[in-house]
Amino acid sequence: MIISSESRIRTTNKRFGSGHSLPFLLNKWQYATVYGDGSMDWSNPWTREDYHSYEGSTYQYGFVKTTVDEIHPGPPYLTGGPFQSIEIENIPRNSSGGVFGSGTYLNRNGDGKFVGGFNFPSDFWWDRGAGLPYPSSPVIPPNSSLFPNTDDLRDQAWHRTKPQLEQSGLYVFLKESHDIPRMLESSARLHDKVWRSLGGSSGGSEWRMTPKFTADQFLNQQFGWMPFISDVVSFLKTCLRMNDLLIKLSKENGQWIRRRVPMVQSVVDRVIDSGSSLAMPCYAPHGLWPDFFSATPSYELSEHIVTNASSSGKFRYYRPEFDLLDQNYHSSLNSVLRYLTLYGLRVTPSNLYRATPWTWLIDWVSNVGRHIEKFSDQLVDSMQAQYLYLMHSERRERRLLCKLPFWQPGMLSLEFRRVITTKQRVEADGPYGFGLSWDNLTPRQLAIAAALGITRR
Prior knowledge:
Blueprint: E1 7-14, E2 24-34, E3 40-52, E4 63-70, E5 83-91, E6 100-106, E7 112-118, H1 123-126, H2 151-161, H3 170-176, H4 180-197, H5 211-240, H6 242-252, E8 257-276, E9 298-316, H7 332-342, H8 349-354, H9 359-365, H10 368-381, E10 384-405, E11 411-427, H11 443-451
């Protein structure tokens, strides 16, 4: 992102204590003198002290937040722009000099004491799987890898947010209807093989899903039946709402329309790592002493990710057949053209592309179809956006649970969390969406934008 003269960077950080990189006492191991009669003398115990230091980036800040935004005139604030915010927090925040779970713990015989506590786990433990690092600097740059990549969503934003003139895809459906017999044949082969394997009338021969047969069925389902059913459903919905849709498209024709649509709403939970060992994430100096535990200590690293994304824009399109001010609005020709548009029967660059065999494979690995659709929107429907924003937020929380089964006083469970929360608002490069900036517009596109009152900020 280019930082303009209007941009600003603000940072908040809360250290957990001064001198955080200096060694501090983490705990003491103590053993009493045991006499032959079983009595213990704690007046001069054997003692070993363990120290720890949060060196480098590890737990350098309990909480840090960086915000990159722009200064706009107001209030009222009528304009917006790019926005990035990232919050990183280690939980629990330190409240006792970097020591957690402080107490006195006894070994099995009662002649040994563990006096002290444990440390916040180092980056070595948090960076497992897809790493969740902690920055060494409180100022997190806008191009930090901690921000999720939103390029794929930018390509979808125009398609999902724009006004939908074509409510059905009959042109593509009719062009691909010759594939229906092949789809039926492929599905029939699957049902026949399943029936045979279950001991049907044709015999009970053993059947295995070969890689080729599995791939054929997958393609038949993903790019055959699913689009077919979707086309049928959209056609029926369009038939039921035809009059309302025609009225709506006519009223909105040539008008600026504000639209906001959800794009991503997901929750992911997973276990990244787990194990049992005396070398625990919460104890950095060395391995724990085994005689203090009734079983081997264990740990589990899990992750909880919540992602939300939406897009917001202000669009305008113009089709002559939907112009209510046109004296020929109710003519037979314009009525037919409106139906062709509504049901997706127009011969447009986008429909021609989608009806071409194997373009589904191109779209599976690229965004060619999206770009052609955007070109078609501009060429056929004069579609433009006064503004278009993509908003994305993600909360990624990693939870490290350590279980230490001391003989006395019993099980100690310590939970540590590292949370990264990111928020982004990305502005389209120009009136024709993402990826086409003002500097790349043709004279005709610039003239249309100027006629509509759309200017570069």
